[in-house]
Specification:
single chain, 4 helices, 42% strand, alpha+beta, 8-stranded antiparallel beta barrel
Length: 197
């Protein structure tokens, strides 16, 4: 058993023409839903380029803000596909940031690498959160989101709602089975798969 906290996830994408059928299927198998509009900024260490040149993946810091709820977190490299072939399993740490997230990241030695906006829906299913969204571009002049084109791909993330520890009482296999249940009930409409991100 490990002292790390983990996220377990599956990912997929689909075209707008399939939105209604997929939305109905996920809603049928969910306990709650609500609209989402999130800004996500990705930071990398100041020496991130050097780390990549040396063959190492730098630890990225992701700041997500659901309009009034800023949360920062970082993911480490996903566990090997040989260890967890069914789903993406990666160490995960989160913290709530009060105040300026950009200054907080800079104080940790990180610089901004990219930012995106995501607009769509959030669903709850037991210990999981299902995010279904389109990415919006950022206006370089105003730094505000530009609504996605109607033909933009929809993305789906099925993942644990909060970090979990792999213990005898709560083994990772329970979370893996939960995301695989979603994969099963979406079969035929949406291909959910492991993704090394």
């Amino acid at each position: 058993m490990s002292s790390h906290y983990y996220e377990v996830a599956l990912f997929g994408e689909f075209f707008s023409r399939d939105l209604k059928a997929i939305l109905n299927r996920i809603t049928l198998h969910s306990e709650a839903s609500q609209p989402m509009h999130t800004r996500e900024v990705v930071f990398e260490p100041l020496n991130g380029l050097h780390e990549r040149d040396m063959g190492a993946d730098p630890v990225l810091l992701r700041a997500k803000k659901e309009l009034t709820d800023p949360t920062s977190g970082c993911y480490l490299k996903p566990e090997s596909v040989r260890v967890h072939p069914e789903a993406t399993v990666r160490p995960w740490a989160t913290c709530e940031v009060v105040g300026d997230t950009l200054s907080f990241a800079a104080s940790l030695g990180y610089i901004r690498r990219s930012q995106i906006y995501k607009r769509g829906y959030t669903f709850r299913r037991g210990p999981l959160v299902i995010l279904m969204f389109q990415q919006e571009q950022v206006d370089p002049a105003t730094q505000q989101p530009i609504p996605a084109h109607p033909d933009t791909l929809w993305e789906v993330e099925v993942k644990t709602a909060s970090p979990l520890r792999n213990t005898q009482e709560t083994p990772l296999s329970h979370a893996i089975n939960a995301v695989l249940e979603v994969q099963l009930f979406m079969k035929g409409l949406l291909d959910l798969r492991r993704q090394d991100v």
